[in-house]
Structures are given as structure tokens and as C-alpha cells.
Amino acid sequence: ETGAVDLVPIRTTGDRIQDRTLAEAGGKGLFTKEIEEALLSGAVDLAVHSAKDMQTWLPRGLAIGAVLPREDPRDALFSRSGARDLAALPPGAVLGTASLRRQAQALMRRPDLKVVPFRGNVETRLRKLADGLADATLLAVAGLKRLGRADLLGAILEPEEMLPAAGQGTIAIEIRAEDAGGAARLQPLNHAASLAALTAERALLAALDGSCRTPIAALAEPQGGGLRLRALLALPDGSRFHAGEEAGETADAAALGTELGRRLLAAAGPEFLRSVR
């Protein structure tokens, strides 16, 4: 069966709001709301998302139909001083980011840094940096590669220094849950290892009741025929955090994420999460 696919560009609330962090504006559903409404109404049959923008719990009636092969999930550091890592930034440097996850991890390692909100696409954020609105900023490696701007990449931070967001670097295709035909047609596109990693990371978010108001980082990677999941739960100012990891069978990806999430939650205690709500 062959046929054309009509592309329907949809500008979301998250694209339009550029003056606040996602947490202040209402959460990461801002990047999916209008697209998911079009999917539920039947105006579109497939929705393509950056998986890290998807809500922890999908709207009723929607499901992930396929996941494409994951791009590099790491973050890259851009600085006016040419610093190769956070430690090399000048004392008291200003870091521009709208991500509480990036903010928390940067302040964990460099509490002297000053963090200011940075929103916009890659070009906008790099222009703000060039204009001196900040001394440094962080961008996802995957986004730069997909824009064909891998030439800009210099200082890529390893997960040990900056653990990515759950789903970072992953493209997910969302469908209506009852659309069995659509699910079947998507299977040739589905990348099993990337789906397993995303499943583990999203299960962790669910166990932690994750949102944009809680700095959470997670990365699942293949390891010895199985899966290794690392995660971090932190306060926005980086003053307190809990980290952990879990390994297991790829087939048990969801259980792996749930178990590590519950373990981190138990270690943190209820007061920890209440303090960032």
C-alpha cells in the first residue's frame, strides 16, 4: 500500500510563550496540547513529538504507536569563555536556561552560578548568548544534529555531569489508542531498544509523579543485553538531590523504571517533593 502523507504544521502554546519557564507557564503539556487535540478530534492521524515534551500521563484515548531510533541524548555547553565543562565557567557566571533539570544539576556542581530564564529555539538562544544576556547556556545535542548544525557542537557534557531529561533525543509517534491499523502501519518504524529505554524512563516519571515543576533526570541505555537506568531527583537550587540506578532485562523496562522511581521517592521522603510543588 502506498500513498502520500499530508503534513499538518501545528504551533503549540509552548512555541508561543517565550518569556517564562515551562514550570511557570503550566508544564510541558504546552508543547503537545494543540497537537493532541487535533489527534483526538480526527483532524490528524499521527502526532510526532519530542518524547521529552510529552506529559507523564497521556490524555485518555491516546498512546505511543512507535519510537524512532534515539539520537544522542546528551546536553552541550555553549559559553562565551569557551569553557569545556561546568567547572571551567568563570566564577559567578550567568547560565541561561529555562530547564529546572539543567538548572538544578548546574547548581549542584557550581552553586556560585547565577541562572536566568532562556527560552526560544536554538538560534534565539545562541543569539541571546552572543548578545551577552548570559555567559553560558545548554542545548540538547539531538536538536542540533537534527537541525543539521552539528558543526556548532563543542563541549558535550557526559551524563555523569549532566543527566538528560527522560525521553531526550527520542522522537515518539502518538496515535489514537483504538487505531489498530495505524499501530500496525507504524511497526516498521519502531526501534525496539529506543522504545524500551523510553518505557523505563517514563515509568520512572510516573512513579515520581514527575512534572516540569520537579527537576528529574533519567537515562536508560543498553547494557550487556539488558538495560541500565540512571536517575536523579533534585531541588531546583541544587542544594539537595537523590540519585540512583537500576539494571535488568529489557523486557522488564517498565518495572525497572517503577522500581527505581519508588526507591528514589522513598529516599527523598514526602517533604522533598512538597518543597518544589
Explained architecture:
By secondary structure, this protein is α+β, with helices and mostly antiparallel strands. The protein contains ten helices and eleven strands. The strands form three sheets. The chain has a five-stranded mixed β-sheet with strand order 5-4-6-3-7. Helix 8 (192-208) runs parallel beside helix 9 (253-268). The longest helix is centred in the C-terminal third of the chain and has 17 residues, at 192-208. It is globular, with a radius of gyration of 19 Å. The termini are far apart.
Give the topology.
Blueprint: H1 13-16, H2 22-25, H3 33-41, E1 47-50, E2 62-67, E3 75-79, E4 94-96, H4 100-109, E5 114-116, H5 122-130, E6 136-140, H6 141-146, E7 155-157, E8 171-176, H7 180-186, H8 192-208, E9 216-223, E10 226-234, E11 241-248, H9 253-268, H10 270-274
Parallel strand pairs: 4-5, 4-6
Antiparallel strand pairs: 1-8, 2-8, 3-6, 3-7, 9-10, 10-11
Helix pairs in contact: 8-9
